[in-house]
Amino acid sequence: MEPDWPSLPKHVLDSVLEKLVSLSDYLRFSIVCKSWYYVTKDNQIQRAKMTAPMLLICANKRHSWNLYSIVDDKVFDFQLSVPNKRYCGSSFGWLIAVEKNFAITLINPFLRVKGRRKKENSIIRLPSMRLPPSNSERRRWSRQCNHYVFKATMSADPIADAEDCIVVVIYREFYQMAFIRLGKAATWTYIDTGVDRLGTLIHEVTNVEDKFYAVDQKFRLLSFGVTAESNPNVEVVACMTRRPALSKRYLVYSIEKELLMVIRYVAYDGGKRSTVGFLVFELNFDKREWVAKDNLGDDVALFVGDSSSVTVPASKSGCLSNCIYFIHDNDGQGYDIDRRYHLDFGVYNVKSKSISQPYTSHAKSLVEMTDYEPVWVKPTLNL
Q1: What is the pLDDT of residues 254-293, one digit of tens each?
Q2: Which end of the chain has the smaller Cβ count within 10 Å, N or C?
Q3: What's the whole-model pTM score?
Q4: How many CA atoms lie within 13 A of 353 on its CB side?
């Protein structure tokens, strides 16, 4: 008697799905039959938490981006149809960009495969932000609108969880923050980040459960909640006495429920930038202080970049454990808008303090040739 594969119990199929590392294997599993498809669909939210980000690389052709999987070590044989521009954020598989009228656009690249019909709701258009105060600034920023927002992030998927989706941005050369609640507000709310007489420059922001956390140029950690009733009250949560020079900072809420600050050290040689190391700190919420960490954990891989910074379980995602995957981004020394080559990328082993280059020659050449910053993006299955 032939086996009845479509009638396998759900718990058996769930256990098989847990052992699949490659996203392509996961997709193949979903198309075997209808019952397997629905089991895959039920598991896709949990799967998204375990899936490693992929690298989106502009192909320097109109609306053409390549997708590279560092786990599968391959450039996929299709391209994604999204505009050629700098993306200031990547959350829940969505890209965040600024338009010429200073409006914010959310784009799901996985719903826009070239040569196929683009799916509905692949683009969400948000209202325009507050214009720069002077005519000269407006003219300058209109020419550089891609950089008007330095960093953007979201608290939830704008389609699957629209009720809880809040978009927060750092704009105008780190000076200010603003947020908007999807479906609940028609305009942006602007956040007063002046926690002292001189104000502060914001360098990074991330979402942790019901709050947002930001880091300023003094390495102070700020926090604020977002409610529909009032503007958020910003408070200083922790400070770091040592302020490293020639460094970049990232905030990451890890899979182990830790708030991490990752400091990236860079060096310059003849104008070429290279990453030389990282330090990782964990926030002690009770003592309100940063504690140095000498490892990420035996089953943790970390991805950092301007667009997004996330951790994933190494064993379930196929990544190297206790390692930091990094790409070229703004180091705080200036916007470097005309940069053509994006050469500062690789993998940092936290234990051995060594840097390796895991990319294939094909992927490396694509990264080196692109006119736009590559972007980490978490793939969505869209089943």
Answers
A1: 988 999 999 999 888 877 788 999 999 999 999 999 999 9
A2: N
A3: 0.86
A4: 7
